[in-house]
Write a structure and sequence with these properties.
The complex is a heterodimer of chains A (112) and B (235). Chain A has one helix and five strands, in the order αβββββ. Chain A has a five-stranded antiparallel β-sheet, with no helix packed on it. Chain A has 112 residues and is mostly beta strands. The N and C termini of chain A lie far apart (38 Å). Chain B is mainly beta. The two termini of chain B are 36 Å apart. The C terminus of chain B is likely disordered.
Amino acid sequence: MNLIERIEQEQLKKEIPRFAVGDTVRVHSRIREGDKERIQVFQGIVIAKKGHGINAAFTVRRLSYGEGIERTYRLHSPWIEKIEVERSAKVRRAKLYYLRGRKGKDAVLGRK
Amino acid sequence: METSMSMGLMGRKLGMTQIYDAEGNLVPVTVVGAEPNVVVRFEARRDGSKRAQIGFETVREKRLTKPMRGHFSKAGVTPRRFLREFTIAASEEWKPGQEVEVALFRPGQLVDVIGVSKGKGFQGVMKKHNFSGQGAAHGSKMHRRNGAIGCRSTPGRIFRNQGMPGHLGNARATVQDLRVVAVREEDRALLIRGSVPGARGGLVLVRTAIKGQPKPQEKPQGKGGKAQPARSSKK
């Protein structure tokens, strides 16, 4: 393994829960406000996973007061404290961008 | 004004990656691998400054000319592929045979990196000198040319440094004031923030920045976790 790969390996988190596109997850991320730090939880459906190794990222979508919110996280970022898988769903696509146009019941995925 | 020069070293650009710093920010870094360099010659000059010649990467003696063999045996070091010289501050002292390792640099320090930029071949003025070019459509028959290069009989000549097409790249290039993010002694590598001239595997020179002084590590402040540049006025 060359040095660059080794440097990247060191940056990776050891334990990451397995989750797939379509899963509903709770992402605990550390937020810094001034000098204070707190944990923010963002719950939603994973609609995309991108990249691998140190570049891995995923996008979580949720509906908040009728408005769709998407947040993209870097999987190995130290800002992410914890990822909990709430429920899994059966999906046939790697990217669930089609959920963007949907609201209410149409945006609910079938259980696995 | 006395420029404080100090020792530098040679290394090879291994490539780029990203690492998370202590605050969790993703920092782009270039990895420069540097096996220990060795001082081949050290001499004081009349003006009080000192010159150190360092060698990098061992090479078979057979590859060298006889004068070069003599040069290395005089210093008592094994033959090296590359030799470079640095001007050293009068206060510093080095001896031939002494090794120069990546530990020369500390994390947070600013360095200059010198390399040979990637060759781009014969390039037009748009790429080479950032000219704007002409219209792409609307009947324009001139797209990426240089346009006018001067006036008429006054001054009757083309000014020096007028941008013209020609060879681009494959030339010595220096990037100043790059921050050393990490020094990996066991891997004999430096992690330098940002990009560095040249292709992977290219020879680079790393020296203490001649202009920038190492700034104190920025403390997180202000809103949104973004470090603001220190400015006196402006609220």
